[in-house]
Design goal:
Helix content is 61%, strand content 8%. The protein has helices spanning 27-39, 44-51, 60-75, 103-114, 119-130, 145-171, 175-188, 193-205, 209-227, 233-244, 252-268, 278-297, 303-306, and strands at residues 2-5, 11-14, 17-20, 42-43, 86-89, 92-95, 100-102.
Length: 307
């Protein structure tokens, strides 16, 4: 049985043997293996188009066949072409599905098993899928167009899986796990608002208002710097709900008091004394939050009402 890993560097394990890097006999043999593992059966002409960026050489069929021969020998030095895990079929190649296991295929299957299920049923396959993806896809192929496209496609799938897992773990009352998965999602996509929402909600569920407020402030600054936008209404409502905890509903003074309490809490964990930012910057951040909280809690009356 051959286990092929495409998340991270391309690797193959078969029994006690393992192949990676130069073990495949060159860049092109390694890419052939990755393409067959990623896409399934491929005709020789299509495989050549992908390998040579749409400009295969005139003798590409013979060259491709020589690369496949090298790859077969590296995968099984004592085997014959007829017994190889790389099968020749219908003018192209494919991997022997009975003898090959690919991490990307397992990841896809586990996500499919979790789709449409409730938290308790979805979490086991989601957690299993996420154990496969500590690194981006195909890091050995930084510039090949087919690898770049696949890497971005799976990055989005990984973020969705992490956010779904965070949502489900929060629903079953496991706030620390929800925080872990939301934080992992934000490492893959720092601008994912849903990730920020889940991170803040997890801090809130865990009873850490200071961390929740700090996360909202970090999200607000990041969205402003990178996209020039404010947090969504849903995020701002969560922020305001945090400030209103233990305060009379609709009371602006209560919100202000909560902000001041947050300032003391943030100072107690060292936020306002952070050497990298300095007290001035932290004070300005707190002032922004105070202004926003006051506006959210008591928005100005429309002109029609004033007149």
């Amino acid at each position: 049985m051959y286990e092929i890993q495409l998340f991270g560097s391309t690797r193959v394990r078969s029994g006690a043997a393992a192949l990676s890097g130069r073990d495949f006999g060159g860049v092109k043999p390694r890419q052939i293996l990755a393409l067959l593992a990623l896409r399934g059966a491929l005709p020789k002409d299509e495989l050549a188009e992908l390998l040579w960026f749409g400009r295969p050489p005139a003798n590409h069929v013979a060259t491709l066949e020589s690369y496949v021969s090298v790859l077969r020998r590296r995968l099984d030095p004592r085997g014959s072409a007829r017994r190889s895990v790389i099968l020749t079929r219908n003018g192209g190649y494919r991997l022997d599905g009975d003898r090959v296991s690919v991490d990307v295929a397992r990841f896809d299957a586990l996500l499919a098993a979790a789709a449409g299920r409730g938290p308790s049923q979805a979490l086991p396959p989601l957690r299993a899928a996420l154990t496969l993806v500590n690194e981006p896809l195909l890091v050995d192929e930084p510039s090949a167009g087919w690898a770049v496209d696949a890497r971005e496609r799976y990055r989005k799938r990984i973020v969705d899986a992490l956010l779904g897992t965070a949502t489900h773990t929060l629903a079953v009352g496991d706030a620390p796990a929800a925080l872990e998965f939301a934080t992992r999602a934000l490492r893959w996509d720092p601008l994912a608002e849903r990730g920020w929402y889940l991170r803040i909600a997890a801090h809130k569920a865990d009873g850490d208002r200071a961390a929740a407020l700090g996360a909202y402030d970090e999200c607000r600054r990041l969205l402003g710097q990178e996209l020039g936008v404010e947090p969504s209404v849903k995020l701002r409502d969560l922020f305001l709900d945090l400030l209103r905890q233990d305060q009379p509903a609709g009371c602006v003074d209560g919100v202000v008091a909560a902000i001041r309490a947050m300032a003391r809490e943030l100072a107690s964990v060292g936020d306002l004394r952070a050497v990298g930012e300095g007290a001035g910057t932290s004070a300005r951040r707190l002032a922004h939050l105070l202004t926003e909280a006051t506006e959210l809690a008591d928005p100005p009356a429309p002109l029609s009402a004033v007149s």
